[in-house]
Amino acid sequence: MAPELQRDLGLFATTAIAIGAMVGSGIFILPGIAYASAGSAVVLAYLIAGLLVIPAALSASEMATAMPEDGGSYVYVERGMGPLMGTIAGIGNWFMLSFKGALALIGGVPYLVYVAPDLASYILPIALGLALFFTLLNVVSTKSTGSLQFAIVGVMILAMGYFIVSGLPDVSGSQTSGSFDLASEGILAATGLVFVSYAGVIKVSAVAEEVKDPGKTIPRAMIGSLLFTTALYVLVVYVAIGVAPDLSTGGGFVPAAGEEVASIAYAADAVLGSVGSFIIVLAALLALASTANAGLLSASRFPFAMARDDLVPDAFEKLHDRFKTPALAVAITGGMMMFMIATLPIEQVAKFGSAFQILVFILVNLALVGFREGAIDDYNPEFVAPLYPWMQLVGMGGGLLVLTQMGTVPFAGAVAITIISIAWYVGYARPRTDREGAARTGARQNVSQRAVDRTRELFEAEREYDVLVAITESTSPDARRDMLRMATDMGRLRSTTVSVVEFVDIPHQLFAGDHARISTDEIPDWMPTSSKDSPSWFPDEYDINRPVRPSGGVGADTGHPSPATRIEYREVDSEDHKHAIVDLATYGDYDLIIAERNQADFHHRLFGSDTDWLIENTPCDVMLVEDNEFDGAEEIAVVANRGPFDPLKLLFADAVAEETGAQLNLLQAIPVDAPDSQRETVERYHEELISILTVPTRSTVIETDDETAGLARFVGDADLLVTGIDRTGLTARVLGRPGNRLIDSVDTTAVMVQTYDGRRQSLLQRLVMDHLFG
Q1: Top CATH class, 11-433
Q2: Using alpha carbons only, how large is the chain's radius of gyration in Å?
Q3: Rounded CA gap, 195 and 400, in Å?
């Protein structure tokens, strides 16, 4: 059983953590830089950025009340989108929060130097000392961390409130002109820059397992802190712009340690004098310290939560025997922060983190969609995000828009961390986990339900189904009879016209017409002519007629009863039978072609074969029959190749079973390490199909890593195999066809089904089916 953390954080402490995670560099460092890009419109940039964060905050609030577990956005993305995306979110968040915490600790350089230039040479030891202090504090007690966070944020808010109230009367209208002008140049670039100021809003969910009454506390803390921080940013920046001549220069003071300026201290000095600027410097140092503290606290919970899911070693999950905190996760995070402080260019790396945080916001919104659409039984949030899914779509679209304004360098950092995360997942986590996300489960359920609906629709359809049985001179008499038998069986479930057409190849004729010649002189000896003295499978009270329509369709009244099946015969002379088959099927408006499977054709590769050409060019469904002395059936195996069963497979197998008295066996293979949810979905899907079918049916779900070998073991006892072609075109010729390999590995009559719609599936559709059911 996973160890439980103590629920020590109330509403005020939780809100303080959220505010502390946001208010730091966002207000004390970024305004001056953003002012250089957008001028006074930086005020509007902060407002727009705050609004764009609302969808992610609402989505995170809902998921946090359904899953009050440490890990925050990692947990939501992992549960909603699966362990791969969860690994990316978890490792990326851990790296970026560590980077931002380190940046916050040395981000006070301009403010310290502003009031005490002699301290510039001691900044690194001070930053390292603070990192060590916060690490030890987080190891000892989360409650102490929350209490300290509340105290720090309280002092900071009082100082900033003092600045706002004192500075508002002195705001210059000329300097704030255009503060809310959407048409201002650089507004989007500035929005992208200050967007990271709100990255901490969902970090409170990273400590959800330590929050009292999370169903109420988390949404209130998250939304309340976001609204408060947005208002604070807008007011502080508006006042700073209004009282300082040029916020981007900091009065001409640029510290040697970096490009950032003490812009808010400079503005405070213009309004409050030296005493006021000292108060703001103190508030800035406290705010940056609180950002580092909150960042360390939140970052350490990501490896802790990932260890619970077997995505990182179990040692990160272990709690300290005395303090009941994830000591190793905290220590590793603190050590990483100190390493970054001592060795890395933190400012640039923090910009990398900004891009990744926006991606995380997009993933959080997407994860909520996964949960809502995934129909997860135990997903019962106490708080429900309003305006679904429009709010989430706006959040994702807005995030993508902001990303386009951030340049290529931040993207490079995000891509690098993503690659590292994927490599870690493939090398370490994947062999240790068999879970999947709610989105994949829901998508599989939706695909299966649509397949059930299409199957029911096909079985209930009343439209006549026209079948073209295409035989050639090489088709054996036994195969001809079996193909006719299978075609007439379709009439047991729906009205069917069966046209048996023998395609005779003739030598090339120089002055021949463009079309094949059709003749109907005689009915061949191999073909039953009436129900008298004919096989048991032949339709009752029916004689074969010469065709009364040259190109398919419903035949005219011949004086016979109106059976479910009409049968007719003709002969077609042509120079190329495959083209003649396609032409006749096209002009005759047939629904299905039944032809003989030529085994040799399926082993042609790059240059294709006559069978390949026929499959790729027919305007209707195709069945290829591999006859192996078919003489009735006691069991018919129906195999699902790519995703759900095609309804035509089931209709055909059911029709043959009606005539032969056979039992159907629905066979579907899943990987050995498939999650339980995949097997459950497949089993429920089979149960619904069984309720539609008209004959006795059983279900067999096979767990195997060798699909062909696994299915062959169960197909071996069947009298008829119904499978799919499952690949067409160049892909089939290069990679082969799994259905073809299955037929070659068993000794039974087989039918390969290729529907017209299935042939038209895009590569993306096929990849999705492989991902959902493979």
Answers
A1: mainly alpha
A2: 36
A3: 12
